[in-house]
Amino acid sequence: MTHLAVTVIGPDRPGIIADVTRALAGAGVNLEDSTMTLLRGHFAMMLICSGPSLDEVDRAIAPLGGELVVTVREVGPDQPAAALGPSYLLSVHGADRPGIVSAITTVVAAAGGNITDLSTRLSGSLYVLTAEVDLPRTVDIDDLRTALDATADHLGVDATLHPAETDEL
Amino acid sequence: MDWSPADLGIPGTVLQVVRAPHPVLATGGAEVDPADPAVIELAADLVATMRVSPGCVGLAAPQVGVAADVFALDVTGHPKTRTGHGTLVLCNARVLEATRKEKAREGCMSVPDLTGDVKRATRIVVSGVLPGTTEAVTVETDGFEARALQHEIDHCAGLLFLDRVAGAHAVFPRKVYL
């Protein structure tokens, strides 16, 4: 069993997912975790799959080339990473300018935080970033908020960090 | 509410909790006769199983493999509880009123490796019948108990939190702490 990372991006149209996954299923590929989303008119897919050899999958997806940029490469087996500590949701919004993601994520990284999910949207001049962050238990949340606020002030944006608690039911 | 599991008159047996994709979790629980001795036994078993499961505040019959409209609930002592009704077992429960929806992340013993963001009412009125009785009771509650009640009533209707997630990006792998 080979583990594969497949990425697809191309101008959006109805049927991209159906076409790509039909080709993969036809080659005996089993989709595992994936995320697929529309980014400013480009449809992007990232999938971790298991299946036959890289060559077979390459052949199966070759006909999709053209409007879609498809890459397939072999990856190692699953490596479930242990979470560092509690999860937080980070929201940032404000006037768009270069460097927002870089500056904010640098603050998170400096605190030892691990971002497990992040997306951004540009809507007119409004820039919005939302992220899920695992923080080490040793992090002082007030200190991190202070550091984020300072960076956000410098960028002219607002940043909030709040716990992503799970209700066990 | 003047009721406790002791009123069932029998000790429960701890049952095994089933996990998705077990088909019983997607099967609606059949309406039950709350006075049926088998339902009273199931109620005691649900309470016993809930009690031995760490962090468990509710358990519905489909979660122990029984397609019946019965669940146990106890949010006593949970830090998020505002209003609480102690240990409850309800048969054939229905939501009569539901207002003020809020989104929160839920986990479930039957879906142990995932969590999901679900919008649920924070104020509800539920009616149901206590096992071993015949009269319907009304439970009016809020906050965490309201969410837990809706989660269990969903189980009895064959619904998991996965059926109610608040968007295509609202299911998450559960964090594993070493």
How would you describe the overall organization of this protein?
The complex is a heterodimer of chains A (169) and B (178). Chain A has helices at residues 16-26, 54-61, 100-110, 141-155; strands at 2-11, 30-39, 42-51, 69-75, 87-95, 114-123, 126-134, 157-163, 166-168. Chain A is of the alpha+beta class and 169 residues long. In chain A, the strands form two sheets. A four-stranded antiparallel sheet of chain A has the order 2-3-1-4, covered by helices on one side. Chain B is an alpha+beta fold and 178 residues long. Chain B has a single domain, classed as Peptide Deformylase, CATH 3.90.45.10. In chain B, strands 1, 2, 3, 4, 5 and 6 form a six-stranded antiparallel sheet that branches. Chain B is globular, with a radius of gyration of 15 Å. The chains are: A alpha+beta (169), B alpha+beta (178). The A-B interface holds A 35, 37, 80, 82-83, 85, 87, 117, 119, 132, 134, 164-169 and B 55-58, 80, 104-109, 115, 144, 147-148, 151-152, 161, 168-169, 172, 174-178. Strand 9 of chain A pairs parallel with strand 3 of chain B, so a sheet runs across the interface.
